[in-house]
């Protein structure tokens, strides 16, 4: 159980902060932050340097080092990010934030539990589309700047494997890759792929 001190519920007064792509947020064990713009990923590392993605968060999500006991713990910006301090005097709001963390961890565990990397990647794309996607004429636009290495870190595989599978999915018409690592997932098509 995390210690929920009064400093978690009522953080020190700090102004909004803006970070650039691939910036690492400074360690802050006292404050919670609300994402006003952009996306971040939270990662940890194995002893051999292997990156493990713990979560991907976007606009409206609440995050902070105080919500985890994982060491090491790093919050990396996936593009320009604007954060504002978040405080609450309502314990039910804090409970909702903790539930979101648990829910995302469970969803990523289920994605990583599939037997093949191909299915893991498809499930990750579906999850990203559901969580962050925007409806466009061709399907759902996943407008995150996730590199092939970021995706590989999330599902526990290699960048080369992710590149190969994405190329295959694009050739088969299940996805359309755009500039700046954007992907359009053709949802009605992807269901046929799994059957």
UniProtKB/TrEMBL annotation:
<feature type="domain" description="HTH crp-type">
    <location>
        <begin position="115"/>
        <end position="189"/>
    </location>
</feature>
<dbReference type="InterPro" id="IPR036388">
    <property type="entry name" value="WH-like_DNA-bd_sf"/>
</dbReference>
<dbReference type="InterPro" id="IPR012318">
    <property type="entry name" value="HTH_CRP"/>
</dbReference>
<keyword id="KW-0805">Transcription regulation</keyword>
<dbReference type="InterPro" id="IPR014710">
    <property type="entry name" value="RmlC-like_jellyroll"/>
</dbReference>
<dbReference type="InterPro" id="IPR036390">
    <property type="entry name" value="WH_DNA-bd_sf"/>
</dbReference>
<keyword id="KW-0804">Transcription</keyword>
<dbReference type="InterPro" id="IPR018490">
    <property type="entry name" value="cNMP-bd_dom_sf"/>
</dbReference>
<protein>
    <submittedName>
        <fullName>Crp/Fnr family transcriptional regulator</fullName>
    </submittedName>
</protein>
<keyword id="KW-0238">DNA-binding</keyword>
<dbReference type="Pfam" id="PF13545">
    <property type="entry name" value="HTH_Crp_2"/>
</dbReference>
